[in-house]
Design a protein that fits this description.
The structure holds two protein chains of two kinds. Chain A is an all-alpha fold. Helices cover about 70% and strands about 0% of the residues of chain A. Chain A folds into two domains: about 1-25, no CATH class; about 40-70 and about 105-325, MetI-like (MetI-like fold). Chain A has 13 helices and two strands; from the N terminus they run ααααββααααααααα. By secondary structure, chain B is of the alpha+beta class. In chain B, about 30% of the residues lie in helices and about 15% in strands. In chain B, strands 14-18-13-17-15-16 form a six-stranded mixed beta sheet. The radius of gyration of chain B is 23 Å and the shape is globular. The chains are: A mainly alpha, B alpha+beta. Chains A and B meet through strand 1 of A and helix 9, helix 12 and helix 14 of B.
């Protein structure tokens, strides 16, 4: 393992005495944190993300107390052919910071904020499913080897071989019907469940392969040997010995697929198999607004711009995390 | 006067995908407001539409493209009941005894002879109608069209188990006894029932080239009803029952090339056995008409605005979505190709008399008073998509009566509605479930607009958008308890309020154990039924029309329905299309009898 010059630069800047202690006592986590903190781009993006995540969590409360109002129409603010917002930039005013929605006059900012919440719920849940299955399958597959590894590997190949988008489009109605039959309430709930399940289910094999690779290199290490010689069995080794050592790739991968899922929800909604329009999500808002690109650009750019910012921020934070956690991948 | 369930289902399917329209027959606009005045009402924003628009030419040849969204459900004439399909079939392939001319404005609503030599003679107080079939009229295989073919075609409507979907005016009007359950004793030509057949042959008699109809009751405008493809002749040797659903055996200027490709592209070519000398109505200018089904409204609008390649020669029945309307308004080249005619359709709300909540008359009144028609229309796309309605009879339909049932403004009066709910003695908020034909952004926005108005008055509204089989649900008595208010859309079948009031609210012809037919809310009033009978007995058309207007008011004041908007279309056609007209007799859809191609 090489140590980059950068670390020493900073340490020397801190001062002689402190330098000795830091070099002596830093854990890998501390090293990673300090590396990450020095990455300005990642820090800015992280701040943006924290802001939007807090906003998404707060949105239902803000809605309840009336700070945002995604449902009230203002027909007086939309006029003329096609009921377009009056005023500049899609009806931007002190009451409506991003303007109003054409045809109904609902406050666009409020709808985007509420949409953000739904999008985050979907992306976070799907990510959790993918990571959970991927981690468990990856560890088992990598550690067990033999026919278990082969079997799980082929199963991953099988899942990856599905033409995903085509299947999603074709299966949406039957799957939703099946979910409804299983007791999931019809309407929005089933749409949410469908998107979460399909994204999660098709997402885990990629991740399982990464974890498997990590586990393959870890399983011959001394601490695993030690655990084994002390009589530890499969599950204990998997989750107590191996898992703590693969948090880094889990974290990095999580930060990379979460934005993918936010974008994927938008795509699915756009194709008409995701969340249906009365419930705002970034996807359904975008679906509705693409036709207005020429006549009311603000209506499109508000959810579209937000989607870009969030996905970009997540990706940059993910990059930063990877750089910080895995010095070998350092591009300096 | 019973309509089949399937008939209304088709109506339903048409509107499920439509932005706003439900469809029944090709309607008509008898109020003398042609395109001109309607275009004017949008502030001159769209091209004026008096008479033909854009280039006119009598040049023959070329290919006309018809882009549409919804698949045709039937091409069988007796099973066609969607306004667009009625118009297209009547102009291209199925000639009838009478039809409506290629014209716009009031001129289009005057019935003219087609396969008959004149518009018929009535006797016996409009209970007997006689028509003579023209000489030299032929089927596409060259065989002559005979009176027997008419008899056979009309008899198919009675086979309600096979020939589903079409209007059943033949069953309502023809003098054939009914069984105890209200259905006709004649079960159609497939039943092999000689007794029933004899009864039918007595009601529709053939003497050489003369066809005589004997009716149950006086129908003063029976010759208008005959324009429906349901009254078209059908050659018995071509009939394979349900299998013939998409078969076209033409009597008109075009015939189908190969098979109909549902949801794809199908082509109509010239029918060499159509003799223009026998047809004074159809101009039949293009050599070919190509239909493409299954496109979205947005794609159609985009293609027609762009006006590239073959789309220059394209038309569509689909209204331009609001976002594209605003685009067209700012694009002079597209604007001159856009029209904004009044349609025969009225959007309305059905109050459900099967729901405990809505059985309270004060609650119904509160609902009507708090309904925000202005916001509803704004959500549809504004003044180009409709004007507030005050009655079920369209202002352009004879029989229209101007009144305001509860004195509420177009945008609703929540304060008054609140008061009414108080008087009703119900605890607020009053929970209601609004079921509507959803699935498009516009329909959802319109529902949200209505919900907001109602909630201001003290209702608590849950929205239930249905994307598939909307009308099947609200027609199903078993589901009656699941909703309180439903969306509906209706247009006349031909000029006259008799095709509006009885089909929607005569409980005797609508309600059965298995279906509500068009009386979705199970409205049942002996007073109204008696008034309907009395109206039919009036032979003076003006008096009868006035009576329909009174019944309309009676039902609305009883809380039987809430009118929402008088719908308008916003259509655009390619720059190479000539002789564009707004023909209210065919519901202002593109008139294929008029259109030509500029080469």
């Amino acid at each position: 393992m090489t140590v980059t010059a950068g670390e020493f630069d900073v340490d020397s800047a801190i001062g002689g005495e402190e330098r000795d202690t830091t070099i002596a006592g830093r854990s890998p986590g501390q090293i990673a944190r300090s590396r990450f903190r020095r990455d300005k781009v990642s820090m800015v993006c992280l701040a943006i993300l924290v802001f939007f995540i807090l906003l998404a969590i707060a949105a239902p409360i803000l809605n309840a107390v009336g700070v945002i109002d995604p449902d009230s129409g203002h027909p007086d603010l939309v006029q003329g052919i096609g009921s377009m917002p009056t005023g500049h930039l899609g009806g931007v005013s002190s009451d409506h910071w991003l303007g109003v929605e054409p045809q109904t006059g609902r406050d666009l900012l409020s709808r985007v904020v509420v949409g953000l919440t739904s999008s985050f719920i979907i992306a976070a849940s799907a990510t959790f499913i993918a990571i959970f299955i991927g981690t468990v399958v990856g560890i088992i597959s990598g550690f067990s080897g033999g026919w278990v590894d082969t079997g799980l590997g082929r199963f991953m190949d099988l899942v990856l071989a599905f033409p995903q988008l085509l299947m999603l489009l074709a299966l949406s109605q039957p799957l939703k019907d099946r979910l409804t039959a299983m007791g999931v309430p019809d309407g929005n709930t089933v749409d949410f469940a469908y998107v979460i399940i399909v994204l999660g289910f098709f997402g885990w094999p990629y991740f399982a392969r990464i974890i498997r690779g990590q586990v393959l290199s870890l399983r011959e290490r001394e601490f695993v040997e030690a655990a084994r010689s002390l009589g530890a069995k499969g599950p204990r080794i998997w989750f107590t010995e191996l898992l703590p050592n693969i948090w880094a790739p889990i974290l990095v991968y999580m930060s990379l697929i979460l934005p993918q899922y936010i974008a994927a929800e938008a795509t699915l909604s756009f194709l008409g198999v995701g969340i249906r329009p009365p419930t705002p999500t970034l996807g359904s808002l975008l679906t509705d607004s693409v036709n207005y690109l020429l006549v009311d650009p603000m209506f499109f750019w508000a959810p579209g711009g937000l989607l870009v910012i969030i996905v970009l921020a997540f990706n940059l934070v993910g990059d930063g995390l990877r750089d910080a956690l895995d010095p070998k991948s350092d591009r300096h | 006067m019973k309509r089949t369930t399937r008939g209304a289902l088709l109506v339903a399917l048409s509107s499920t995908v439509a932005l706003t329209a439900a469809a029944c027959g090709g309607g008509s606009d008898n109020g003398g407001t042609g395109g001109g005045s309607t275009a004017g009402s949008t502030g001159g924003s769209t091209a004026g539409s008096t008479g033909a628009q854009g280039p006119t030419s009598s040049e023959k040849g070329g290919t006309l493209y018809y882009l549409t969204q919804r698949n045709a459900e039937h091409l069988d004439p007796q099973r066609t009941y969607i306004g667009r399909d009625i118009g297209n079939e009547a102009r291209m392939v199925y000639r009838t005894l009478t039809t409506f001319p290629v014209a716009s404005g009031e001129a289009s609503t005057k019935v003219v002879p087609d396969l008959a030599t004149d518009t018929g003679t009535s006797s016996n107080g409009a209970k007997t109608w006689k028509f003579t079939i023209k000489d030299g009229v032929k089927w596409q295989d060259g065989s002559p069209i005979t009176c027997k073919d008419f008899q056979y075609g009309i008899s198919r409507t009675f086979a309600t188990d096979v020939i589903t979907g079409g209007p059943n005016y033949a069953i309502q009007f023809l003098d054939i006894p009914t069984a105890k359950d209200g259905s006709s004793v004649y079960k159609g030509p497939y039943a092999k029932d000689s007794k029933g057949q004899a009864l039918f042959d007595k009601a529709v008699q053939c003497t050489g080239n003369t066809i005589t109809f004997h009716l149950k009751k006086a129908v003063a405008d029976f010759n208008s009803a005959l324009y429906l493809p349901a009254f078209a002749p059908y050659k018995k040797s071509q009939d394979q029952g349900d299998k013939s659903n998409f078969d076209v055996f033409s009597s008109g200027p075009y015939k189908l090339q190969g098979k109909w490709n549902s949801g794809g592209t199908s082509t109509f070519v010239r029918n060499p056995n159509w003799d223009p000398k026998t047809d004074k109505v159809r101009h039949a200018l293009p050599d070919k008409i190509v239909f493409t089904e299954g496109l979205t409204n947005e794609i159609i609008a985009q293609r027609l605005i762009a006006d590239n390649g073959n789309d220059k020669y394209a038309v569509s029945d689909r209204s331009v979505p609001p976002s594209f309307q605003a685009q067209i308004a700012g694009n002079p080249k597209a604007k001159e190709r856009a029209t904004n005619p009044a349609s025969p359709f009225v959007d309305y709300l059905v109050t459900n008399f099967g729901s405990k909540t809505m059985q309270n008359p004060k609650v119904r009144e509160a609902l009507a008073v708090s309904t925000d028609k202005g916001a509803y229309i704004t959500a549809q796309g504004g003044p180009t998509m409709g004007t507030p309605a005050t009655s079920m009879i369209n202002p352009n339909t004879p029989g229209y009566k101007k009144y305001n049932a509860f004195g509420a403004p177009d945008n609703g009066d929540p304060a008054k509605a609140k008061q009414l709910l108080k008087e009703a003695g119900v605890s607020t908020p009053v929970k209601i479930n609004y079921i509507y034909s959803g699935g498009t952004p516009t329909s959802d926005k319109a529902a949200a607009a209505l919900k907001e108005g109602w909630e201001k008055a003290g209702f608590k509204v849950s929205l239930q958008p249905e994307t598939q089989n909307y009308y099947t649900i609200i027609q199903n008595p078993a589901k009656q308890s699941t909703w309180d208010v439903a969306w509906g859309g209706w247009g006349q079948d031909w000029p006259g309020a008799a095709t509006v009031i009885p089909p929607l609210w005569d409980s005797r012809v609508n309600l059965t154990k298995s279906s509500n037919a068009q009386d979705y809310g199970q409205y049942k009033s002996d007073k109204v039924n008696k008034a309907i009978d009395a109206a039919y007995k009036l032979t003076d058309p003006d008096k009868q029309n006035a009576a329909w207007g009174d019944i309309d008011e009676m039902i609305q004041k009883d809380g039987g329905y809430v009118p929402l908007s008088v719908e308008k279309f916003f259509l655009i056609h390619g720059s190479g299309v000539t002789n564009w007209i707004d023909n209210p007799a065919f519901a202002d859809y593109p008139d294929l009898g008029s259109l030509g191609i500029q080469q």
